[in-house]
């Protein structure tokens, strides 16, 4: 808003002009809380603002003529700047004029030389009028002349509001009667009370040269643009003198009352009367000149004629706009709303008219714009939302261009940093991390590393990692579900995932859990990532033998602890399981004697088993399937092979290094009749021999029981075959 006050010129020191805080609607506490600042535009000129009461007080002498000269309007301007929120009040102090300056003549005494001859009544003698530093009615002058029978005063007001004063002869002069006339010219201004100024006129009556030079015009009006070249001719003046001879020779010169500043700006050829420019015209310093030219003849005594040259200076666009930053509120938070005022700008141009009319804009394209507040006052405001992570600082160039032809332009750079707010959650480089970890790594071993980036600044971008307690691992063989924190932990600063305990593939194959990244902003923001930890199997389990079935009949001991080894020598030197089986002489090659069964708790190649006959070396009567474990005859058995054969069979996995277990198979060779009896005896579990019992038979089973068992098996087999036939017929 804008507030106006009136300041009387020459007001008494201490005079209160107004209650500024009250007039703009401020409370006493707002002055300090909202950081009020008073910014004067130009000179303070004897007026101050009391910080405590907000009173506008006259502090020293206020002279309107010193501040504004002859300008009709005289104002002092200041701005009140308030923060939180930012507001601006414009205060204008109008300095009112009082009649404190008396009229003043250029000289205290004016001397005239008037010839007595041919000077007829009605002759005019121009006089230089007085000036009054006041304005308005206080500067409107009237003139009076002391009583005289020979002269009267002629006062006329010209079209340009200037005064023309002349002394008019009313009665012929007689030098012998009165050689010198002394008159007093008084100037009276229009103030209340009025003030006066005087000048003494000394008129000397001369003989002879009685015709003064006369210009064809009393006032010449010319126009010239500012900045014209030095030496440019302005006008050629001409005056005529009716006398003859030397009395009619005229020379031109500046009047004695012309100011030194004017004489430095212009020159006149005293013979030709040509007025030239010898300085640089500047519209902003002076927009018009009044030049009094005197035409003087060479008679004795010389006579003079006078005229005025009124020069109007035309403005050209020679001043670029000026841009000043009066207030700057930075940094700007990135969540600042659209319309936030960032800076206050003052834009001015010393030119006038269209040349002084200024438009403003911002370049390059940015989230900021310039808005006009009052004449010459602009605001740099936010027009789009900011994002510090995209642009953390703006170099805004505010351009101002006037309306001249050609136009002039100025600019002012404004640096606007953007402050950070916590508007970005941490983000992991991957949504899902898939990690392979070998089993049996010790506690504290690094198994994975996660990374989350937060583009915010400072504490808003500082990330800490944690294991989400809601995550779980795989089901353990004993104890049910176990939390992921029992297997792994996450370093809060680096994001390194390390093992809490050694992982066992046979216990858990996959541990899946979530890692949270939390920044230190207010409020804190969270990012999540899933980690799938696959445990890679190591060959840490040797093959284990299972109870074995015999093709021709077999018996075995309960499985012993398997013996692991990497060489035949190592295996052969260890105890192994002892299995019993039978085979008949004369049986064809390929007869299955027994089947060795074994398992490996590992997986993949580590659990892929192969079977080999370790003893006897070379070509024996028996062989074993490499991957099936079936022990069969390599050829027809003969009596020369003896009553029994002892085989050492090794079961070896494909791990690196490989692990193995061995079994000893004792095969009894019997006759065909004995084979039937052995077959019946092998159907009973009580007929197995155990090495722990010294190899003796554990008991004898009734043959009738074996017969009924065979009958039952045949009956069940017949029912099964009939069922298959019926099912096939139905399908067909």
UniProtKB/TrEMBL annotation:
Protein's gene: Pcdha2_0
InterPro entries: Cadherin-like_dom, Cadherin-like_sf, Cadherin_CS, Cadherin_N, Protocadherin/Cadherin-CA
Listed GO MF terms: calcium ion binding
GO biological process, one term: homophilic cell adhesion via plasma membrane adhesion molecules
UniProt key word Signal: yes
Predominant subcellular localization, coarse grouping: membrane
Keywords: Calcium, Cell adhesion, Cell membrane, Glycoprotein, Membrane, Repeat, Signal, Transmembrane, Transmembrane helix
TM annotation in the entry: 707-730
Subcellular location: Cell membrane
Membrane is among the record's keywords: yes
Domain Cadherin: 49-105, 130-215, 216-323, 324-428, 429-545, 588-685
Protein's recorded name: PCDA2 protein
Organism: Psilopogon haemacephalus (coppersmith barbet)
Membrane topology: Single-pass type I membrane protein
Pfam family, one: Cadherin_2
One Gene Ontology cellular component: plasma membrane
């Amino acid at each position: 808003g804008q507030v106006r006050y009136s300041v009387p010129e020459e007001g008494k020191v201490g005079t209160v002009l107004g209650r500024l805080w009250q007039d703009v609607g401020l409370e006493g506490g707002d002055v300090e809380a909202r950081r009020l600042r008073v910014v004067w535009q130009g000179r303070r000129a004897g007026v101050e603002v009391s910080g405590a009461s907000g009173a506008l007080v006259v502090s020293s002498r206020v002279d309107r003529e010193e501040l504004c000269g002859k300008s009709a309007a005289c104002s002092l301007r200041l701005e009140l700047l308030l923060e939180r929120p930012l507001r601006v009040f414009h205060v204008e102090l109008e300095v009112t004029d009082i009649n404190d300056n008396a009229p003043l003549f250029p000289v205290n005494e004016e001397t005239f030389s008037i010839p007595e001859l041919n000077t007829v009544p009605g002759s005019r003698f121009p006089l230089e009028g007085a000036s009054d530093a006041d304005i308005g009615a206080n500067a409107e002058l009237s003139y009076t002349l002391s009583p005289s029978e020979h002269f009267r005063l002629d006062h006329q007001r010209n079209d340009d509001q200037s005064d023309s004063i002349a002394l008019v002869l009313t009665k012929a002069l007689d030098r012998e009667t009165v050689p010198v006339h002394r008159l007093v010219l008084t100037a009276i201004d229009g103030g209340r009370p009025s003030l006066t100024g005087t000048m003494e006129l000394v008129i000397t009556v001369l003989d002879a040269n009685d015709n003064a030079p006369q210009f064809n015009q009393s006032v010449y009006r010319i126009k010239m643009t500012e900045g014209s070249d030095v030496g440019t001719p302005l006008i050629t003046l001409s005056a005529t003198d009716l006398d003859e001879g030397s009395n009619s020779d005229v020379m031109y010169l500046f009047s004695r009352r012309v100011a030194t500043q004017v004489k430095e700006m212009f020159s006149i050829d005293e013979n030709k009367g040509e007025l030239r420019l010898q300085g640089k015209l500047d519209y902003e310093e002076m927009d018009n000149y009044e030049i009094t030219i005197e035409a003087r003849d060479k008679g004795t005594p010389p006579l003079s004629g006078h005229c005025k040259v009124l020069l109007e200076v035309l403005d050209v666009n020679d001043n670029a706009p000026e841009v000043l930053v009066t207030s700057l509120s930075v940094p700007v938070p990135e969540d600042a709303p659209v319309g936030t005022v960032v800076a206050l700008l003052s834009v001015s141009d010393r030119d006038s008219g269209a040349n002084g009319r200024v438009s403003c804009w911002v370049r390059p394209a940015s989230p900021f714009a310039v808005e006009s507040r009052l004449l010459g006052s602009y605001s740099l405001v936010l027009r789009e939302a900011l994002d510090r992570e995209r642009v953390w600082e703006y170099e805004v160039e505010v351009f101002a261009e006037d309306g001249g032809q050609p136009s002039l332009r100025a600019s002012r750079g404004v640096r606007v940093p953007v402050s950070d707010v916590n508007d970005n959650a941490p983000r992991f480089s991957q949504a899902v991390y898939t990690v392979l970890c070998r089993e049996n790594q010790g506690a504290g071993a690094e198994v994975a590393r996660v990374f989350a980036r937060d583009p915010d600044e400072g504490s808003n971008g500082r990330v800490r990692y944690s294991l989400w307690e809601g995550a779980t691992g795989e089901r353990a063989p004993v104890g049910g579900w176990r939390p992921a924190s029992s297997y792994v932990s996450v370093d809060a600063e680096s994001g390194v995932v390390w093992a809490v305990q050694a992982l066992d593939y046979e216990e858990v194959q996959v541990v899946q859990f979530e890692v949270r990244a939390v920044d230190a902003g207010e409020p804190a923001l969270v990012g999540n990532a899933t980690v799938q930890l696959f445990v890679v199997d190591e060959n840490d389990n040797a093959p284990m033998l299972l109870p074995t079935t015999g093709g021709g009949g077999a018996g075995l001991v309960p499985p012993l602890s398997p013996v692991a080894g990497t060489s035949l020598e190592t295996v052969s030197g260890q105890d192994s399981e002892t299995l019993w089986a039978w085979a008949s002489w004369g049986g064809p090659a390929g007869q299955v004697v027994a089947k060795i069964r074994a398992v490996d708790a590992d997986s993949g190649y580590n659990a892929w088993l192969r079977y080999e006959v370790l003893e006897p070396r070379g070509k024996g009567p028996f062989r074993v399937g490499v991957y099936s474990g079936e022990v069969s005859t390599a050829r027809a058995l003969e009596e020369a092979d003896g009553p029994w054969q002892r085989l050492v069979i090794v079961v070896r996995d494909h791990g690196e290094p490989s692990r193995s277990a061995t079994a000893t198979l004792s095969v009894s060779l019997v006759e065909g009749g004995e084979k039937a009896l052995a077959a019946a005896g092998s159907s009973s579990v009580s007929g197995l021999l155990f090495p722990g019992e010294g190899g003796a038979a554990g008991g004898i089973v009734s043959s009738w029981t074996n017969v009924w068992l065979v009958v039952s098996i045949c009956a069940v087999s017949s029912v099964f075959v009939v069922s298959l036939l019926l099912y096939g017929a139905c399908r067909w």
